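Hi Prof. W.,

I finally got the Alkaline/neutral invertase prediction working! I wasn't sure whether to trim anything, so I left the full sequence exactly as given:
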Amino acid sequence: MDAVRDSGNAKAEPHSSVEADELNLPRLLEKRRLNIDRKSSLDERSLSELSLGGNVRNVESYDSMYSPMATTGARSGWDTPASTTPRASDPHPMVVDAWDSLRRSLVFFRGLPVGTIAAADHQSEQVLNYDQVFVRDFVPSALAFLMNGEPDIVKNFLLKTVQLQSWEKRIDRFKLGEGAMPASFKVLHDPIRKTDSLAADFGESAIGRVAPIDSGFWWIILLRAYTKSTGDISLAESPECQKGMRLVLSLCLSEGFDTFPTLLCADGCSMIDRRMGIYGYPIEIQALFFMALRCAFWMLKQDAEGKEFIERIVKRVHALSYHIRTYFWLDFQQLNVIYRYKTEEYSHTAVNKFNVIPDSIPDWLFDFMPCRGGYFIGNVSPARMDFRWFSLGNFFAILSSLSTPDQSAAIMDLLEERWEELVGDMPLKISYPAIESYEWRVVTGCDPKNTRWSYHNGGSWPGWLLHPYFHHSLSLSLSHYNQLLIAANAVLLWMLTAACIKTGRPQIARRALDLAESRLMKDGWPEYYDGKLGRFVGKQARKFQTWSIAGYLVAKMMLEDPTHVGMVSLEEDKAMKPAPKRSASWSC
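And this is what came out:
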């Protein structure tokens, strides 16, 4: 809708240890009904429980596996919510200011808080749609409130959003799928009748009139975060939420002509709501899709309807993890393999399975790719690879355990090796590099708002994930792009922080947080920054942008109490064995 505001080091041959055909799911599912015990650890209900015989794993909790403070601090377990009382006032002035600003952004429906508006910039002449509650944008706000022991607003948001999902959705004469979640909603107050009503946008007001693919994924991920934080399983097991999850899954798991397990996306259907050549199989959507599938697996009831979806989730997760780990992974060694690809191969023995032309490798990549490190590239489809780095996709690959442990470490290695390019003066760049000149004209259609180093095309976003349908998957080879696409934000800051804690490198997050603290409050919590290094407040950036505020708070609280990361992180599933190892210190 937002027309105006818009992972191991080597390319190994990873293999899932269990193929879908080998699963005897009906027998296993009948064997037991998994009870989620409030006294249990943070360990997830694993896919391996089904694929490896149905026995519940007695694995150490998430906190003890990943948190360096697990032995010294309180845990966010089922019987110990993440925070039972509001946090004490932090002496840092930014924290006090951030909480005050976040509370001023609250939106109320019939007396109950149901979300936060996108921005509260009272100096702006045009409100536009910044006074709406966006599903994606609310996630960092929700995490902040959960960590502060205020879950009611999150519960209200989840219930209100799933109610909106049931609305009939039409664009012109076409009816959208029943499971589509809204991009945003607005509370309308009638002062005369003293009533409140809701107006939701499912894409009919968006640039290009496209529905948001990722809204449903974020809703499922947030539902799981709420359950993990509070220990309240009644919400996830309510008929409304169970149906909401099934409807989202039915859209994503429907059978068609796809030959890949990845999810096909149209231009402008996700974070980027403007023409940016975004179509195909972007890593951001695949990582969120994977995370949502695993979260839904954990929360779905094993009744007649739930079992069917659990079976489909198991098969899809195994296929998706293999596909992403095999074909999306890039490091120095794999780049050399692609560089030597032969083309026009036919038969099952083909090495260049997607018939990628080596000459399509962009020049910037040879200098960008270090000897140490690696990442999941932006997009893979027939005869096309988008080699750009995308922060969200890579960080969520770590958090969801879509990446193997070696790949997760390599992503962090790359971030350290290319700190100036990927972080710069204002963390965090959402993608690298930017487009300009001829490519800008072809890809964006000469979009005057997405000129280089501005907005979606090179603007630095210390706040949320850009905007309601912002999605990254630049077409073609992007050759000669020697610049950065700096779209970065504090939601990425909290994602970076969570990924750093999970991989045992919190010092990286602290370094990035120090950069953000030097500017954000002083500049009035702007929506985004312009310039190659993100030094200038954006030309049309709103001040007091909620995701900038909330993302900072979440990152800050995660560093103070790393057990919070359990809300947004999943353990590696033992049924999905990592790829054959190659040294994480691979060098040229």
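Residues 1-90, 463-489, 576-587 have pLDDT under 50 and may be disordered. Does that look reasonable to you?

Thanks,
D.
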